[in-house]
Structure formats: C-alpha cells, structure tokens
Write a structure and sequence with these properties.
The protein is α+β, with helices and mostly antiparallel strands. Helix content is 61%, strand content 12%. β5 and β6 form a beta hairpin. The N terminus and C terminus are likely disordered.
C-alpha cells in the first residue's frame, strides 16, 4: 500500500475522533427540590430532636418487621414477597432495562460481523447452428463445456457511527440511569409489600381484639335479657324493661356477626396477599398471640435530607430527571450531521480442475456524512418534546420530595399522638369498667334501673372499641414511619443525595 493511501486512511479515522469531542448542552441532570432544614413535627424538646426510627440508619431499618419478635409476621411478609406480582413485574423491568443499557452501550463501539460462504457451480456457453443438416456437427463444435468450479469466500466487515454530538453517549447515559431507577423501584415495591402485609396483619389482630370485646358484650347482654325474661314471667319486671333487654342483646348479636365478617375479610386479604392456604393461615393466626407491644422509637438527631436519601422512590424520581436530561441531549443531537465509517477485509479462493487461486481484499470506507436538510421540523419537535418530558420529570421529582417530607411528618405526628393518647385510653377503659361493674352490682340489688345499666354498658363498649382502634392506629403509624423512611433501603451513592452533588456542566463546542 502506498504512503498516500496510509495518509488518507489515517485522516479518515482521526478526523471523526476529533469531531467526536463535540457535544451539546443538556439541561441540568439534577433538579432542585424544597427540602426543609429540620422536621416540624412532633415538636422536639429543648435541645433535642424529632423522633426517627433507629437513627434513620438503613442498616438498622432493614427488615424492620423483625423488631416485633413476631415470627408469624416475618413468615407472612416473606410469603407475600415471594407471591407478589408487583415484585415480579419490577424484577422483569430490571431485566428489560439491563438489556437496553447493554444495547445502548454497544452502539458506541464498532460493529464487526463475519461472513463465510461456499459455492459449487458450472455453466455452458455457445451458439446454435442455422442449418438443419449441419445442426449436430455445429453444436458439437460451437459449444464448450466449463468445468465445475468451487468458490470459497471469507470476510470481516466493520461499521462504526462516530458519536459527533453525543447522541449515542446520551442514549447510553439514559439507559444506565433507567436501569438504576428500575432497581430502586424494585426496592420500593419490596418496601410497599412489607408495609401492606404488616398493616393487614395488624388490622386482623385488631379485628380479633375487637371480636373479643364484642363477644364479651354479647354474652353480658344476652345474660341480662335472659334474667329479665325470667323476672317478667314471675311478675317482677315490666314488659318494657324485658323488651329493652332483648333489643340490647339483639343489637350486640348483630355487631358480633358484623365483626366476625370483618375479621373473615381481613384473613381473606392476607390469604390473597401471601398465597398461604386459608385453613393453614387460620391455624397460624389462632396459635399466635393477639397482643404485641410495639418497639420504642428512639429520639435521635437527623435531618430531612438524610432521611429522604434513603427513599428508593425519591431516588428513582431523581434518576428519571437525569435520564430525561440525557434524552434531551440525544434528541438535540439528532438535528446535527451523523458520521459513519465502514471497512472490510476478505479472502476469495477459486478451485477448478485441480488448480486454486486465492485473492485477498480489503476496503476502508466509505466515510459517510449524513446531514439533515429538510425534515419538516420533525427533529426540532422531537427535541422540544424531550424538553417537555424533562420539565415533567423535574416537576414529578419535586412533588415526590414534598410528598416524602409530608409522609414522614404525618407518621411522626400520628406516632406521637397515639403514644400520648394510649395512657388516657387505658385509664378510660379501666374506670369505665369499674363504673360498669358497680352499676351491675347496683342493678342486681335493685338499686339501679336497666336504663342505667345499658347506658353504662354502652359507655364501656365505646371506650373499649376506641382503645382497640387506637392500638391499630398506633401500629399503622409505626409501619408508616418505617415505610416513609425507606424501609431499610440505601442508595448506591450513599455519601450524599444525587441532587446535592451532581450538576451538568457540559458546554457547547463547535465541531
């Protein structure tokens, strides 16, 4: 090969590499979000801080449901995770995003394909005679037979699109960011499944406690109605009092039936969520204690920025902004020229009548430059649409941050409120129980009317129902706090939130 050819080939390769340094400006890959400096609720004590679970540490938050020392809850959550279609879909999306990321990265590299072919053929050539009498002899002398020929061919072909304006790099970045976002969404799905299972389990346990209250109330009212019926037959009780007692007993029986149905619905929900057979689940629930004390939530120093850094949904929304920024860069690059380079090497071998001939071939090029000239504004419209999606993702990210702050604040408020009300609820039940017992004794001795007894009974039932509802509310607030804190997930770049550390600083360069 001559020196001149080497120079031309070098220019064909080096010029695209030099042009490849050109890039277009993307929007910022991190959108600012309104993160408060400290929690507003509950109000911390002087010199103290708001309560956060286990210092907000992802390591301590991981598998938070094990802190209850409830083996059944652990088993239910593990079963729900295994049976969850949401987790399965999230895992499938991770696989899809990983394949897309690999394909986007491969587009930056030269493409190399190999070919191998073999052909066996022969052909004849000649002309037909013009006279009838001499057709045979003319045919034998004017046609010649070509011997069979074998052709073997092997080659390598390469093509490469030079990333002049960062289109391919932007596509690779967007795919990589969406892969990380899909992984974060899987963790968010896992946190949601665990929280939903725990809430449904606590709901079923609260339903069982309320069922016990309803059963005791029904037995008490039924016994009162029975005694009033006996007294009425003996002529010591007015028919109106006996009717009131029967009505009260029927009302309690109706509430008991409704409560049993409510508990059955809760168990059916657990069956659907965990995939455990209904009879087996009933046996497990019957063997497990109904009452479980919630672990204490420690009061530690932490700020919202640290807490939100542990939220997989916030991190996923953050990555969506960065991916949308890369999409804008890719769409903008579509409006500029595209440069591609192809080349090939090959070997051709022909075999016929015991002889063979080999030829080596190579080519560098063509170097193709594709310039969009007239597209009716399609490329510009695509770029504007990409910027619109970027603005949407930035807005969604800011909204997810506000929602995350709200969820933590609400969980802190509810947990603090339920903790403050628990003592009062217990005191109310104890004293209403004492009042009812005294009224029952006075009624049995004839010093209190049936109306007084039923009024005292209703007051006690209301207090007992309120205490069960408060216990359930506190359990839900406890789960909500751990869910709002990310449920133990830790972001890959755990040093600092992405929005606080990464900013897009690329500038436009002239090609």
């Amino acid at each position: 090969m001559s020196l001149r050819r080497f120079q031309l080939l070098g220019a064909a390769v080096c010029v695209p590499l030099a042009l490849g340094a050109c890039s277009l400006t993307r929007p910022p890959s991190a959108a600012p979000a309104p993160i408060p400096a400290q929690w507003n609720a509950p109000l911390p004590p002087p010199g103290g801080s708001a309560a956060l679970p286990h210092a907000g540490s992802p390591a301590a938050l991981a598998d938070w449901w094990r802190q209850l020392d409830d083996p059944l809850l652990v088993e239910l959550i593990e079963a729900a995770e295994a049976a969850s279609p949401t987790l399965a879909s999230a895992a499938a999306r991770i696989g899809d995003a990983r394949a897309t990321s690999v394909a986007a990265g491969a587009a930056l590299l030269p493409n190399l394909t190999g070919t191998l072919s073999a052909t066996r053929s022969n052909s004849q050539s000649g002309s037909s005679g013009t006279g009838t009498s001499s057709s045979t002899s003319s045919s034998s002398t004017s046609s010649a037979s070509i011997p069979p020929m074998t052709t073997l061919q092997a080659g390598l072909q390469s093509s490469w699109e030079v990333d002049l304006f960062g289109k391919l790099r932007s596509g690779r970045d967007a795919a990589s960011l969406r892969l990380a976002g899909a992984d974060a969404k899987w963790h968010q799905a896992r946190v949601s499944v665990a929280a939903d299972t725990a809430n449904l389990y606590f709901s079923e346990r609260a339903c069982e406690r309320q069922l016990a209250v309803a059963e005791n109330d029904t037995r008490s009212r039924a016994e009162t109605a029975r005694l009033n019926d006996l007294s009425m037959r003996a002529g010591f009780t007015a028919p109106a009092d006996a009717a009131l007692a029967r009505a009260s007993a029927a009302d309690a029986a109706g509430r008991l039936t409704q409560q049993r149905a409510t508990c059955a619905v809760s168990r059916a929900g657990l069956v659907a969520l965990t995939g455990i057979e209904a009879r087996a689940l009933e046996q497990k629930l019957a063997a497990a204690p109904v009452d479980r004390a919630l672990p204490a939530v420690q009061s530690v120093a932490s700020v919202p920025a640290e807490a939100l850094a542990q939220r997989p949904d916030v991190y996923s929304a953050e990555l969506d902004v960065a991916a949308a920024s890369a999409d804008v860069g890719e769409a903008e690059a579509q409006r500029y020229p595209r440069l591609s380079l192809t080349g090939s090497i090959g070997r051709l071998q022909i075999r016929t009548q015991g002889t063979r001939q080999t030829l080596d071939t190579w080519s560098a090029g063509p170097v193709s430059l594709t310039v969009p000239i007239l597209d009716g504004g399609a490329y510009k419209a695509n770029a504007e649409a990409a910027r619109g999606r970027y603005d949407e993702m930035a807005s969604i990210y800011r909204g997810s941050v506000r929602q995350a702050v709200r969820e933590v604040e609400e969980a802190l408020l509810n947990l603090d409120s339920t903790a403050s009300r628990t003592g009062d609820a217990d005191t109310a039940v104890q004293n209403y129980q004492a009042s009812f017992n005294a009224t029952q004794a006075r009624y049995d001795s004839g010093l209190a009317s049936l109306f007084e007894l039923e009024d005292s009974r209703r007051t006690l039932l209301t207090a007992q129902t309120a205490r069960v509802a408060l216990q359930r509310e506190r359990a839900e607030a406890w789960v909500a706090l751990y869910r709002a804190m990310g449920g133990g997930w830790a972001r890959p770049d755990a040093a600092a939130p992405l929005a606080m550390t990464r900013q897009e600083t690329t500038t436009t360069k002239s090609p």
